[in-house]
């Protein structure tokens, strides 16, 4: 009896994974990096990372730290992480301890120099008060972009918001509508300025190697055929590559998981790794 239940569970999981991968392979991927794209020198000279203590942000920070074209990294955060501590100790990262993510007074001089923002700040909607969820995922990024645009209006500037797969203003889930609205509001604020904003509708973002274990690597293998997984570091590389190509993707472009994988591959090709 127990053996039969176990086999039934395995079969259900297999069908689910095959179904998900088939759906991903058939529907994801709308953008193709231009092999002849002109890259703008200095487009990623100064990078600012939000959410660096989290699973996604740790990968974004790692990608920025590994990029020789990134000269200066600022992390705006409530607390430190091992990578932030190491980055701070090596002089690679400047940590800006911050509490209220709706206010950026006193940061103007730094914001005036920032080229690329990687926004990995966010949290699960499960069990969260909808008002607080909206504050974190709509008010925080829009307040930041407003402050950034007040301090700097000249490109190159790119804002990369990790919203997630399923985001959309017409979706039934409240979290999806909130994040979709945030994507639109930020793109509207950026219109006509030197800023381009992007919503990254990523699927599963694999944590950095320092935070991974065998189960995570197994899941990565299972989801790879449908382009349903991206490493946090690769998402960061995709952001850097998109920022470096100012003539390619317009303000407000939505990046799905397969698109980001393509731009990460273009980054690696350019970087020779
Ligand atoms: N993980 C994935 O596979 C995945 C896939 C698609 C989209 N996303 C999206 O990416 C975002 C980050 O996900 P994650 O998995 O990295 O989450 P996580 O590990 O829980 O990290 C959340 C990050 O956001 C910060 N944060 C959360 N609430 C905050 C608040 N009220 N004020 C200031 N900072 C706050 C946290 O800072 P503290 O350390 O100070 O709490 C931390 O740096 C979420 O919006 C998520 O939906 C994730």
Largest sheet, spatial ordering of strands: 3-2-1-4-5-6-9
- CATH domain class name: Alpha Beta
Listing every helix as H and every strand as E from the N terminus to the C terminus, the arrangement reads: HEHEHEHEHEHEEHEHEH
In terms of structural class, how would the helical and strand content be classed? alpha/beta
Approximate helicity band: 40-55%
CATH H-tier superfamily: NAD(P)-binding Rossmann-like Domain
Q: CATH topology, which one? A: Rossmann fold
Task: Considering the chains and any ligands shown, give keywords for the structure.
seven-stranded parallel β-sheet; alpha/beta; 15% strand; two-stranded parallel ribbon; binds NADP nicotinamide-adenine-dinucleotide phosphate; 9 helices; Rossmann fold; 273 residues
3D structure, described in words:
With 273 residues, this protein is of the alpha/beta class. The protein has one domain: 3-Layer(aba) Sandwich (Rossmann fold). The protein has 9 helices and 9 strands. A 7-stranded parallel sheet has the order 3-2-1-4-5-6-9, sandwiched between helices. Helix 2 (55-66) crosses helix 8 and helix 8 crosses helix 9 (257-271). The chain is globular, with a radius of gyration of 19 Å. The chain starts with a helix and ends with a helix. Bound molecules: NADP nicotinamide-adenine-dinucleotide phosphate. Residues 51, 53-57, 78-79, 101, 120-123, 136, 162, 164, 202, 204-205 line the site of NADP nicotinamide-adenine-dinucleotide phosphate. NADP nicotinamide-adenine-dinucleotide phosphate binds next to helix 2 and strand 7.
